[in-house]
Amino acid sequence: MSACLQREKGSASGAETKRTEPRGNEKKCSWALYMTNSPTVIVMIGLPARGKTYMSKKLTRYLNWIGVPTKVFNLGVYRREAVKAYKSYDFFRHDNQEAMRIRKQCALVALQDVKAYLNEEGGQIAVFDATNTTRERRDLILSFAEEYAYKVFFVESVCDDPEVIAANILDVKVSSPDYPESNRERVMDDFLKRIECYKVTYQPLDPDEYDKDLSFIKVMNVGRQFLVNRIQDYIQSKIVYYLMNIHVHSHSIYLCRHGESDHNVQGRIGGDSELSPRGKQFSHALRDFIEEHKLSDLKVWTSQLRRTIQTAEELGVPYEQWKILNEIDAGVCEEMTYDMIQNTFPEEFALRDQDKYHYRYPGGESYQDLVQRLEPVIMELERQGNVLVICHQAVMRCLLAYFLDKSADDLPYLKCPLHTVLKLTPVAYGCKVETFYLNVEAVSTHRDRPLGKVRREPAPILLRRNSYTPLSSHDQVKRPRLYSAGNRPWLALAPSPSALQFPETPEGELMHQQSQEPLCEGNDSDIPEDPNDCVRF
């Protein structure tokens, strides 16, 4: 008996488990719980070669990136575990009773794995990637979900464009484990016959009668049209929004950081400094790179900070400035070196090394905040053709983590060196990466993941600052991010008001008093202001 069928036999008793069993790892998913309320099963529907697995993998990558633990359960993997050697399309005939029994048992085993993931492993969304073309199969999934109090959202992919179907077969199915041979004609013939086997029993979702109460989206002809029905919650609206923005087209995304800046040379973070001489040299090299690769239809995006704008100015092409592409806001640590941060804010320095992804700078942002800020950029990159994004180290890490499916733990430590261009080209189920170093030297701003240190004394318990419980230090000042060359910050490197030193003169005393007064804005009425209602910055 195959491993898949043995697991099915052993899981029969597990089906008796009640929906009230406790969920594991609750604390790890507080942000996900906020968005989903209860676990969700996304059920794919559609004939073979309709892009279901493509959408499943992209959707899973996106949901994990925004912080919702998600996993794909591909029924083809279970079927190949049960039937080691695929022979022909006959296995998928509706009148092949033995094959139908195996396929149903594989579905039941996969559903038990879905239950384990959602109930015991801290998962929030399971993507059930299979054809699910009959009402009988979908009713089975709905009964399973009802038993364990899961929400269900269906994603049906409908495509009648023969060119799209043929391209999908050749791009993906030819390299499938089902077809170890390389004869494209035989693969195409067998797979088309497999599709015909499914067509005999295919029952599309019926939004008018039978399925009118279900939550689903129909994606027609790879995104040309959509039909959305009964969205239940916020996360389902996010899924719909994402699926309506992904487009299947050939394009490449180029990511690079700005040229080396004066602050990079000085080892300072944040700020709005200008390019160093080597940074200007890189901007010329970047222009030559674009000309050499004949990227005439390239769109160029920058942040609103000077170092990216100065880099783009040398390209001689139009560019767009995006404020949401600005570097992560380091709050009170802006324009400080890491040594200065460690000496001035030793506890903050230690907190950040404990959990770099969730740590939020006092008065600033965390990497998780940055991911949420960059979500519109991802949506637009999915829709666009060739784009060059000139950005910053933390921003580039977040974008790269999305395309390369990197975890939140690895994201803050991705290497994004200066004066290097990364070319990302989406392929069937992933992304191809090409690296181009433009032969202009620059400092390294990368900090490796801290190694575990053995402490002789018990370490003091530090309360982590993160995006779930956004604590902020007392007595802090947040400086503006943007300023012009003639309007520098009023105090370049002061970490907090308590560190300010005023001269012992009448003017100095006045400045000291003003620094202690609350700041109120926008009060145009004649009612006296209550200092208790004001916020001190």
Walkthrough of the structure:
The protein is 37% helix and 12% strand. By secondary structure, the chain is an alpha/beta fold. The strands form 2 sheets. The chain has a 6-stranded mixed beta sheet, sandwiched between helices. Strands 9-8-10-7-11-12 form a 6-stranded mixed beta sheet, sandwiched between helices. Helix 12 (306-313) links the parallel strand 8 (299-302) and strand 9. Helix 11 (277-292) packs across helix 12 (306-313) and helix 15 packs across helix 16. The relative contact order is 0.10. Residues 11-30, 453-500 and 518-537 have low confidence and may be disordered.
Label the structural class. Answer: alpha/beta
| Strands side by side in the biggest sheet | 2-3-1-4-5-6
Note the gap between the termini: 70 Å
Characterize the largest beta sheet: strand count, sense, and whether it forms a barrel. Answer: 6 strands, mixed
Number of helices: 17
Order of helices and strands: HHEHEHHEHEHHEEHEHHEHEHHHEHEEH
Q: Describe the global form.
A: globular
Fraction in helix: 25-40%
Low-confidence stretches: 11-30, 453-500, 518-537
Strand content: 5-15%
What integer is the average pLDDT? 84
Number of E-state strands: 12
Task: Please compute the radius of gyration using only Cα atoms.
Answer: 28 Å
